[in-house]
Recover the amino acids of this structure.
C-alpha cells in the first residue's frame, strides 16, 4: 500500500531509464566486462579514459520533459562496479578517476530543476569483488566486507543527494535476501528516505513490480522497463534496430490501459551525448503526448476489452479509446454499461455521430483513414463512472466461464 506521497507513481506513465558508465567506452553494451571475460584489472585501467565532455544533464532533462516523461532512473553503479557518484569506500568511480566529477549529483540537480522526479539504480552485483562470486559459503570474511561495502554505498546514496523518489535495485542473483541482509537494508533506506519507492529486485516484494522487456499489468503498482534498441541497455555502436515512435506510443497506450508505467531506456555514448535516433524518437513521441495527454495521465485502467480497436483508459466520466487499428468509417464497441452522452476526437474536439443499443455502441461517419496513424484517441463522455457489463469484466480465459453461458446459447 503506497503512502499518499508515493502515489504519483501510479499515474506517472512515462519515465526515462539511463544506463551509462565507463562500459560505454567499449561501445559494446553494459555487460562487456563479464560477457567477453575481460580482465577486471585491465578494465579498471581504462577508467581514466572516461571523459564525458558532452554530458549535459540539464539538456537530458529538458528532452525527457518535452517527451512527456515524469521521472527518471539513473545508473549510480552497474554490475561492473564503476560508480558515477562520490563514494568514500571506493576509488573506482567518476569522482576519483576519469572526469573526476560526481555525475549522479549533476543528474539529480538537473532533473529536479526541470520538475522531474529522480530515481537511482544500484546493482548489488559487483564484478570487481571476487567475494560476490564466491559467496558467503566459500569466502565468509570476504563476503562480509563486500556486504558492508554495499550497505555503505546505499547509505551514501540515500544520505548525500537530498530526497530521492525511486531506488531501483538489480543484480541480487544468485544470493538470497537473507544473504544480502535485505530487510535490514530496506529498514535503513526507509529511515533515511521515508517517501522513497523501492523496486522488487532485492528478493523482497518492494513497492512496485518491474517486468523487463515486456508489458505485464499486475494487481499492484508496476513499471515495464524496455530498451529503445533491440537488445542492449548500455550504448552499443552495433545496434541498428530502434523502436519507432509508433511502437512507443502503442506501449504508452498499453500501460495506460493497464494502470502502469513505461520506463524507456537510453544508453548514452561515452562522451555523454545521446544517440541521434533516440533524440528523434523522443521528439515524435512528445508531439503525440502533448496532444493526447488527457488519455495518458491521471486515468484509470480500461474497464472492458476493446482489443479489436486498440486500448482503453478511463477518467471520472470519460472513456478514452486508443484506436490503434483503424476500422474505417464505422467503429463498434461492446461491453460498456454507461449511457454515452457525447463522442469526439481528443485531438481537435470534432464531434462523432453515435448510436447506442444496449451493450453495443456504434460510431459512424469516421474518416476512412485514421487522423493520427500512430494512435487516434476517441473520447466517449458517459453518464457516471465508466463500468462494464458483468460479462465484459471477466472474459472466458480470465474469470467465470458461466458468465458467457447466455451468450453461447444465443
Amino acid at each position: 500500500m503506497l503512502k499518499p506521497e508515493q502515489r504519483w507513481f501510479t499515474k506517472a506513465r512515462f519515465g526515462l531509464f539511463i544506463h551509462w558508465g565507463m562500459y560505454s567506452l567499449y561501445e559494446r553494451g553494459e555487460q562487456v566486462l563479464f560477457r567477453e571475460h575481460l580482465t577486471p584489472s585491465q578494465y579498471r585501467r581504462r577508467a581514466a579514459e572516461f571523459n564525458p565532455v558532452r554530458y549535459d544533464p540539464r539538456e537530458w532533462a529538458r528532452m525527457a520533459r518535452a517527451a512527456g516523461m515524469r521521472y527518471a532512473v539513473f545508473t549510480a553503479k552497474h554490475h561492473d562496479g564503476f560508480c558515477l557518484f562520490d563514494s568514500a569506500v571506493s576509488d573506482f568511480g567518476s569522482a576519483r578517476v576519469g572526469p573526476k566529477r560526481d555525475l549522479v549529483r549533476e543528474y539529480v540537480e538537473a532533473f529536479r530543476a526541470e520538475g522531474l522526479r529522480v530515481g537511482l539504480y544500484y546493482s548489488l552485483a559487483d564484478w570487481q569483488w571476487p567475494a560476490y562470486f564466491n559467496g558467503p559459503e566459500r569466502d565468509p570474511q570476504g563476503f562480509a566486507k563486500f556486504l558492508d561495502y554495499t550497505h555503505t554505498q546505499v547509505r551514501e546514496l540515500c544520505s548525500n543527494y537530498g530526497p530521492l523518489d525511486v531506488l531501483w535495485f538489480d543484480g541480487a542473483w544468485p544470493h538470497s535476501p537473507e544473504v544480502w541482509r535485505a530487510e535490514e537494508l530496506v529498514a535503513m533506506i526507509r529511515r533515511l528516505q521515508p517517501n522513497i519507492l523501492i523496486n522488487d529486485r532485492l528478493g523482497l516484494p518492494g513497492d512496485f513490480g518491474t517486468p523487463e522487456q515486456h508489458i505485464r499489468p499486475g494487481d499492484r503498482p508496476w513499471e515495464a522497463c524496455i530498451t529503445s534498441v533491440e537488445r542492449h541497455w548500455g550504448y552499443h555502436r552495433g545496434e541498428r534496430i530502434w523502436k519507432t515512435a509508433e511502437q512507443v506510443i502503442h506501449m504508452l497506450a498499453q500501460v495506460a490501459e493497464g494502470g502502469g508505467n513505461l520506463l524507456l531506456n537510453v544508453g548514452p555514448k561515452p562522451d555523454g551525448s545521446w544517440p541521434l535516433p533516440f533524440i528523434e524518437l523522443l521528439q515524435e513521441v512528445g508531439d503525440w503526448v502533448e496532444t493526447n495527454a488527457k488519455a495518458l495521465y491521471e486515468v484509470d485502467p480500461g474497464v472492458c476489452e476493446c482489443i479489436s480497436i486498440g486500448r482503453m483508459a478511463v477518467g471520472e466520466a470519460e472513456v478514452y479509446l486508443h484506436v490503434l487499428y483503424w476500422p474505417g468509417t464505422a467503429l463498434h464497441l461492446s461491453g460498456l454499461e454507461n449511457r454515452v452522452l457525447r463522442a469526439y476526437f481528443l485531438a481537435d474536439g470534432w464531434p462523432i455521430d453515435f448510436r447506442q443499443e444496449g451493450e453495443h455502441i456504434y460510431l459512424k461517419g469516421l474518416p476512412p483513414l485514421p487522423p493520427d496513424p500512430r494512435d487516434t484517441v476517441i473520447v466517449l463522455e458517459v453518464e457516471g463512472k465508466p463500468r462494464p457489463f458483468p460479462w465484459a469484466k471477466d472474459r472466458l480465459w480470465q474469470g467465470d466461464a458461466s458468465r458467457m453461458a447466455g451468450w453461447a446459447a444465443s
